[in-house]
Amino acid sequence: MERLDLDLSRPPPLPGTVEECHRVIEALWRALGEFQQIQARVEELEEQLALGSDNSSQPPSQDSPKKRAERKGKRPTGRKKGAQVGHPRHERALVPAEAVDEVRHYFPHGRCECGGSVAVRGFRPHQVFDLPEIRYRVVEHRVYEGRCGCCGQKHQGRLPDEVPRGQMGPGLVAWIGLMTGRYHLSLREVEALLEEQWGLRFSLGAISQSQIPLQAWLGPVYNQIGEAVRKALIAHADETRPYRGRSIYWLWALTTDQMAYFLTHYSRGKGAAGELLGDFQGILVTDRHGAYNDHPQDSHQYCWAHLIRNLERIAGRKGQAGEDGERLLRAARLTVHCGKLWQQSHYPSDRYRRRLERLKALFRRELEQAAQRHGDNKTGRSCRKLLDDFPRFWTFLDHPGVPMTNNTAERALRPYVIWRKTSFFSQSHRGDCFRPMILSLVETCKRLKIGVYQTLRTICAQGMAEGEVTFRLPLPEPQPLPVASP
Fold first, then answer.
1. Per-residue pLDDT for 79 more than 90?
2. How far apart are CA 69 and CA 85, in angstroms?
3. Where does the DUF6444 domain start and stop, copy by copy (predicted)?
4. Which of 33, 140, 260, 357 qualifies as a cystine partner to 443, CB 3.0-4.6 A?
């Protein structure tokens, strides 16, 4: 670009010829074009700096200090911390007398200060809970051998089928699986806890090797969960990125309110989504990730929380784009509020439905106007993409009972994310395959309110004794969706 050397302290000289005028005008146009490019780049960088968990898919842990301060900024209530005056009292219920391990009696003095005798009329129970001293239990199995006195042939005893062939019993293998899969401890922490709490010393390799048979024993229950969740009428799907280490697998989740099924896959594309969904024919609730778009449009619900975050990003832009984003954001929030009221009324009221239909028409009209107004720039492209996805946001109107958000799947993935952040996580292919199995069992047991440790112990005991696990979880049958009144 040709530079114009102008002295701003005095008016610039007028060009003398027509050619000079054209040269100056062309230079000004080029400068204006470069200025517009620089301005667009500055706005793009400012938008990236403003990204956070409220307007993008970025997790809250990666928010800037400014964003965290804004998120934590709450109006003070003026009340002190802790329990408030007049709150309902909560006390631990007493254990029944037949469940008490030891009873100690404390009687008053038999003689009063006045000289009279004291008659005992009752007592006040005071129960103290404590943990027993822990010690591991060792059973030595002695296998004898002998020799025939006539021919000299050797004869040897044989261990029963129910005796483990390794040094770890079903309770220990189940406990290791519980510590890793439920409480997200690393193998080194499990090694340290075994020695500190139980006085047991097992090498890191032995603890890791204990997951090999457990992975095989979890297979039938894992398949049961996968088959059951694919028969559900409503399911939520989501995925999360792999650990930034040796693992290259993405973790996928297909969940309901009673079940959670996890799958690891090297891809984040449609092939992995198809493997996760299998023959699922119900209503699918997801974010706007395109890998799920092979699912039929009339039974696919997009998450409104993700939509609001996308609109927050548009509303943060300057000029007309920000104004259009604000209008779309208000319409989206009003839709979510009205949808919650409709769901809380159990769908008998037609008033909320009519209001949602009006909001649907308003939201579409605003999107069309914004797409036409902004043309082919970033905001216009975003609005046209929302128009393409528009039917997938309103499936809940045609199928009452379908949630408007994908919180069920995101909550299911949360323990995995915590596990990934607080330990070395998986360092091998075997570990990548073990994680979805143990997570599926743990999360499903939590939803069914079943003890995870007892379930693991039953599975390990069957696997060691019989070689085949026949245990199955009491998974519920699919329930019909509520129907809106005509």
1. no
2. 30
3. 12-92
4. 260
Report residue 412 as tokens: 């299911």
Query: What is the rounded distance in angstroms from the CA atom of residue 181 to the CA atom of residue 465?
Result: 23
DSSP three-state, residue 309: helix
Residue in 413, 381, 460 with CA at minimum distance from that of residue 173: 460
Phi-psi region of 457 (alpha: psi -120 to 50; beta: other; left: phi over 0): alpha
- Which tokens belong to 273? 């989504």
CA-to-CA distance for 220 and 222, rounded, in angstroms? 5
Asked if the model's pLDDT at residue 396 lies above 60, the reply is yes
Side-chain-side CA neighbours of 406 within 13 Å: the count stands at 28
| Euclidean distance between the first and the last CA atom of the chain, given in angstroms as a whole number | 69
pLDDT value at position 30? Answer: 83
CA–CA gap between residue 473 and residue 260 (Å, rounded): 12
β-strands 283-286, 300-302 pairing: parallel
* pLDDT (tens digit per residue) in 83-114: 777 778 777 788 888 889 889 988 888 888 88
Neighbours of 58 (CB within 10 A): 15
Beta strands in 157-302 (DSSP E): 234-240, 250-255, 260-265, 283-286, 300-302
Q: Counting every residue, how long is the chain?
A: 486
Rg (CA), the chain: 33
Name every residue whose Cβ is closer than 8 Å to that of residue 235 and which is 6 or more positions away in sequence: 229, 254, 255, 256, 280, 282, 283, 284, 285
Whose structure tokens read 């043309």?
A: 375
